[in-house]
UniProtKB/TrEMBL annotation:
It comes from Pedobacter chitinilyticus. The keyword Nucleus does not apply. Pfam families: Fasciclin. This is Fasciclin domain-containing protein. Gene3D superfamilies: FAS1 domain (2.30.180.10). PANTHER family: FI19380P1, PERIOSTIN-RELATED. One of its GO terms (cellular component) is extracellular space. Keywords: Signal. It comes from the Bacteria. Residues 1-25 form the signal peptide. The keyword Signal applies. PROSITE patterns: FAS1.
């Protein structure tokens, strides 16, 4: 009986290794984009990918503090304009530390959801909207306020409600539940 139990355990272990190898092989065939030193897999959701980017640790911490992990892990689709750590560093000293405090959750949520559009908007579709809109395109965020997209040369920019611009530095990072566009500034409603 002990021998049968060992054989069963060995068979179960072998199957789990085999399934893990199949999953790794499948992920290695995916077309990934490198963000923050990590591959972003289209089969993973926004949160599953973002946690691996060393350039987005502040954003991930803020998403957790705002209680938005479950939302951004859901089916979506979402378009996330993802500020880098360097973008957060441009804010006045102490801003991030203040925003992630529990008593400021509502303001943090407002700022973060201002970086999210409902639906999956590729850079190509945004460029087309800008061209159609005589040089700019306005889109409403899930927070409820508007962002304005515009282009200069080969670059795509987004302007917030306060008139500040962020450049899209990495476009079209596809996710299972949407797309991420990495930006170099934090947008403010």
């Amino acid at each position: 009986m002990k021998k049968l139990t060992k054989i069963t355990a060995l068979a179960a272990f072998s199957l789990s290794v085999m399934f893990a190898n199949v999953a790794v092989a499948q992920m290695s065939k995916e077309k990934t984009v490198m963000v923050g030193g990590a591959p972003m897999y289209p089969s993973k959701n926004i949160v599953e990918n973002a946690v691996n980017s060393k350039d987005h640790t502040t954003l991930v911490a803020a998403v957790k503090a705002a209680g938005l992990v479950e939302t951004l892990s859901s089916k979506g689709p979402f378009t996330v304009l993802a500020p880098t750590n360097a973008a957060f560093d441009k804010l006045p000293k102490g801003t991030v530390e203040t925003l992630v405090k529990p008593e400021n959750k509502a303001m943090l949520t407002k700022i973060l959801t201002y970086h999210v559009l409902a639906g999956k908007h590729s850079a190509k579709s945004i460029w087309a909207a800008v061209a159609k809109g005589a040089g700019k395109a306005t889109m409403t965020t899930v927070q409820g306020e508007k962002l304005t997209f515009w282009t200069k040369g080969k670059d795509l920019y987004v302007r917030d409600a306060k008139g500040n611009d962020a450049k899209v530095t990495i476009a079209d990072v596809n996710q299972s539940n949407g797309v991420i566009h990495v930006i170099d500034a934090v947008l403010m409603p």
